Amino acid sequence: MSKNYRIRKKGYELVIFEDCIESPREYYKDDNIGIMACFHHRLELGDETPFNKIEDFVNWYNDNKDIIKCCIPLYLIDNEECNGNVSITTDKNDYRKPCQLLGFIYCTTETLKDNWAYDENDEEEILQDRLEDEVMEYDNWLQNIPPYYSFEIKDKDKNHINGQGVFADYGFEDMINEMKERNETKEYNFLFDALLKRERDNCL
User: Is this prediction's pTM over 0.90?
Assistant: First the structure.
């Protein structure tokens, strides 16, 4: 579970806080080849589409098979193994069952036309791999994997000195060292060192 960190030394303060990054469906919208149509009674998931229910999509799909290059079913998992959140998978037999049909991710000749990475000779298997990568990225974001953090350094009067983000926490010590490296106010790096020492001592 993610948490925030705070340490004071020599009157200065370092705060490292969890930073919610933008959904990859929005952040990578110019690179994504897929459209993620999700249908859930309670949660807003996937992309904005003109379909109100799954039957609407199925009817549209049946009428437009000639322009659809690839389409993969999406399944929802909602249990204690999902890092406190729901999970989306393309694997109906996911070990974290039960799975329920959530919707589909698909690409059409139109969505592929302007994509920089698309080759008209790409086979469906290649497109399927890319769509599955998009689903995995989105699922990691839903589950906060990895958590992302930013930092802020404050002076003795709690005025902002410096702050940066966003840092992926694949390992706490590596993340802190990256913050130190990118910190423009090197004279305050003693705060990062003090935080690292404290966290190491707490683990002993």
Answer: no
